[in-house]
Amino acid sequence: MTDSPSSPTPAADVPPLLEFASLTDTGRARHNNEDTVKLDPVLGLAVLADGMGGYNAGEVASDLAAGRVLEQLSAWLRQSPGPHDDDSIRRALAEATQQANQAVHEAAGSRAEYTGMGTTLVSALFATDSVWIAHVGDSRAYRLRGALFEQLGRDHSLLQEQIDAGLLTPEEASYSMHRNLVTRAVGVEPEVLADVHAHDLRGGDVVLLCSDGLSDMLPDVVIAQVMRSHESLEAMAQALVDAANAAGGRDNIAVVLARVRGGLTRAGRGWWPFRR
């Protein structure tokens, strides 16, 4: 887990076609940071988790879940370098999320101070011409492509259910008292269902993973404006955190940025290192 405040972290050994940066911050209202970011730039993996629970349980849950997902997916890619079909990728992401869920759930039962802890989770696995997203809860993935900025997937939250049912408009939801009530989280129950979905990528696309400390403080249009205003991913990450804090910083803030450089393939193969 990254302590706060921290400087944007560029990845050290980035594949030629991908670049990453990440940043976490405690925000202005919290005393500890329960957001965790884990990266394996060489394998094209990014995981972000936003923990919940008393004492230090939230940060324990997020660190444990993100670490387990990264460990599981890294092992799978190294042992089975591919190429992988859609079903195998989907199974790998779902299984890694379930392994994280089991780890957090078992830890929650091991100590009284961890009772009831859990975490949101969003994972990104970059493939040859797409990014695969697995998420549980309301931590989000976005894709910025020129003038188009869109959320990849839907929140598992009471607010999203109310919007889907037509009880609230997205504008009304931004003022709701129930902004932080998730309907699905890692570690709360013995099993969890992750939404796993693929999204195409083109050269120049930027993928953002973030906790609700960013998305609750800034509307999507502002997030997109901040991202477009900075060329380097490190500056972009810092500007997003600064903007969330300027808007109130009511929660911990975590961001991961990944940009596709130029074309997506080299000699017909993707950027996973075992297929170069």
TrEMBL record:
Which top-level group of life is the source organism from? Bacteria
Q: Which InterPro entries match?
A: PP2C, PPM-type-like_dom_sf, PPM-type_phosphatase-like_dom
Q: Which residues form the PPM-type phosphatase domain?
A: 19-260
List where this protein forms a coiled coil: none
Q: Name one GO molecular function term.
A: protein serine/threonine phosphatase activity
UniProt-listed Pfam families: PP2C_2 (PF13672)
Q: Under which name does UniProt file this protein?
A: Stp1/IreP family PP2C-type Ser/Thr phosphatase
| Species whose genome carries this gene | Ideonella alba
